[in-house]
Amino acid sequence: MAKLKPFTMPKWGIEMSEGTIAEWMVAENAPFEKGTVLTLIETDKITNEVEAEAPGRFVRILAKAGETLPVGTLLAVLSDGAEASAAEIEAVIAGFKPVDSSFDPDGDEAVPPPPPAAAQPPVQAAIPDGVAISPVARARALEAGIDVAGLRGSGDGGRITAQDVDQAARPEATPTLAGPYALAPDTGAFASPMARRLSAIHQVPLDGIHGSGPRGRIRKADVLARVERNQPTPAAKAAAGGVTVTPMTSMRRTIARRLTEAKSSIPHFYVRRRVRADRLLALRAAAQGKRPSVNDYLIKACALALVEVPKLNIQVHGHDIHSFGSADIAVAVATEKGLVTPIITHADDRSVADISAVMGALAQRARAGKLKPEEFNGGSFSLSNLGGFGVEQFDAIINPPQGAILAVGAARPEPIDEDGAIRIVPVFHLSLSCDHRAIDGADAGQFLAALANLIEHPELL
């Protein structure tokens, strides 16, 4: 007898509430060994490989590639390698109970809102044992009080799916009679009744259409072919302002949600400053071997400035401020799927060369979607540098729960005052976004002063 167990949507990180099955790497009933990559799960920021903990096989795969499902959802039934009967598999599916993995970002526990006073709980319909029904369909049927006894399942082997339950829960639509279809004016064309109706609906004259039916009769296919030819080409649609609609990915939806919450709930204020960059650029040019990037030097400078002004080295959690003893810098990295912020931990204790090596590896994994949750969750400060795109200055949105983020533009030649003389040197435009709930303007000013001193005297790095 096979040992069966459920294979569920994993949970990586406290804020993960759902995942998308990017791809199944093994087929149903195909044996695999320990360490085999079973599936790729895409979360809001990464794509993780789920490896087999022991040899076995999937005797039933329930979820399809591309589906986005909550944490704890039953994805497949896993066997120790032996084959299992359909009854054994259905018993595991029917007896599966998902774990409550809901997450409330504003509290310690997820507490559902109380129902309205006038609302009455739906009647719970019992589902007999042995009914072939998916876990999601079972939950929806119980919630809506749907009797599944009379439902005809559309899944494999007559299994009742969530779509079948949703269809049964819909109220019956009352048909509305719109009257007969209008026919095209009789111009003497030899056409079938359906061809005449389509001619009227699509406003396609029957004159000039060569009929493919007996004795040249115009048929349905002839009218539809003329309708298709009359459609504008993709180039014409684009020229006319055509719009391509692309659904947001899971990562993009998460970015949109988090940044909308940050901008609407965090009182941002901005402190800006110009900083000469010529000495830092000269120090970098004189470096031997593989040169760190300008961003690597800025990461080190931010870390040391945070140690000097620790009031910005914080996270804000509700009414509590969490202060950190080391500077963990989250660095914005652009990927094909959206913005990711891998974290350089203990950046204040690392050399610029070490920061460069670690940042290069993190950026590579970020673009490949293979960051571990601990490599992008947390951080005490963020750095966003768009200088590589020629952007001179911009303001960034705070990455909660952090308290501040620094935006850096490209170094551009500008005049500065040096001991009464005007010189033209490369200059950075820095913009610091701060959470006014926890950081005051004086704190932000002190941080920028410390940062400017480090950048203008890079030997301190």
Quick gist of this model?
With 461 residues, this protein is an alpha+beta fold.
**How many beta-strand segments?**
18
- Fraction of residues in β-strands: 15-25%
What ranges have pLDDT less than 50 throughout 5 or more consecutive residues?
A: 103-114, 116-122
| CATH-defined architecture of the largest domain | 2-Layer Sandwich
- CATH classification class of the largest domain: Alpha Beta
- The total domain count is 4
Largest β sheet strand count, sense and barrel closure: 7 strands, mixed
Distance between the termini: 65 Å
- Mean residue pLDDT: 85
Radius of gyration, Cα only, in angstroms? 31 Å
Write the layout of secondary structure elements.
Elements: E1 4-8, E2 18-24, E3 37-42, E4 47-51, E5 57-61, E6 68-70, E7 74-79, H1 86-94, H2 135-144, H3 162-169, H4 193-201, H5 220-230, H6 234-239, H7 250-265, E8 268-276, H8 278-285, H9 294-308, E9 314-317, E10 320-323, E11 329-331, E12 333-335, E13 338-340, E14 343-344, H10 352-367, E15 381-385, E16 404-408, E17 412-418, E18 421-435, H11 441-456
Parallel strand pairs: 11-15, 15-16
Antiparallel strand pairs: 1-7, 2-3, 2-6, 3-4, 5-7, 8-18, 9-10, 11-14, 12-13, 16-18, 17-18
